[in-house]
Design brief:
Distance between the termini: 67 Å
Order of helices and strands: HHHHHHEHEEHE
Structural class: alpha+beta
Helix content: 55-70%
Number of helices: 8
Oligomer: single chain
Length: about 220
């Protein structure tokens, strides 16, 4: 019984193996962090999260080496980790995927599967990069909500602003016209810009049309 208990604190890894495992985890996690920075296109990017992915792989590798093939050690670690409460909600699917990516590579490095860790990092990271580039290309046609106020008794008609909108868009769809006091209208369009960098040009040209004011552009990727 005493021998079984003492085996919990015995490590079969040599110093060289420990250094190799941690080094592979570090190298792979640096690539993971790089791929994360290159593939994330959302509004909530944080450098701290990208850096945390590096530490996550390293910690996972150390945890796996600590457990080894000792079942008692594994149960002890689970009990210790159950005390910790993580209250930070991960809202982005992309972040969740990369957390799992970092954990998996850390596990592979921790058990000494260096080739698997390296090949897995490069292969999965490359696929993630390709998918991100494909989404970015499609993102050039993302939907945008255009809304502005228009005074209809100023001698101008709808064709004036429709010409300007069609000049900068691939697709435009009138979705709402709301009547206000003094012949004012609130007009809303779903549009697909030809070039996202021209949104300011669209707003400026609409402002030059008499009777148009309070122009707003809202990103709405699920519009159509």
């Amino acid at each position: 019984m005493f021998n079984d208990f003492s085996s919990i604190f015995q490590f079969s890894l040599s110093s060289t193996e420990i250094i190799e495992n941690i080094s592979i985890a570090l190298i792979c996690s640096l690539f993971i962090s790089y791929f994360y920075r290159k593939t994330y296109n959302g509004p909530g990017y944080l450098d701290s999260f990208a850096n945390a992915l590096i530490l996550l792989s390293l910690i996972t590798a150390v945890v796996i080496m600590t457990i080894g093939n000792n079942l008692a050690r594994a149960f002890g670690l689970v009990g210790a980790m159950s005390i910790i409460r993580f209250r930070t909600a991960v809202k982005e699917t992309h972040d969740i995927v990369y957390i799992f990516f970092s954990l998996t590579i850390g596990m592979a490095a921790g058990v000494g599967l260096h080739s698997l860790a390296i090949v897995g990092t490069i292969f999965i990271g490359s696929i993630s990069y390709i998918i991100a580039k494909m989404n970015l290309k499609n993102g050039d046609e993302k939907n945008t909500l255009l809304e502005f106020h228009f005074q209809s008794d100023n001698g101008k008609n709808s064709t004036d602003y429709e010409k300007v909108i069609s000049k900068f868009t691939k697709k435009m769809k009138l979705i709402n016209i709301k009547s206000l006091e003094n012949n004012n209208l609130v007009i809303s369009y779903y549009i697909k810009l030809k070039n996202n960098n021209q949104s300011l040009n669209l707003v400026n040209e609409l402002q030059n049309i008499a009777g148009i004011k309070n122009i707003s552009l809202f990103s709405d990727e699920e519009a159509f």
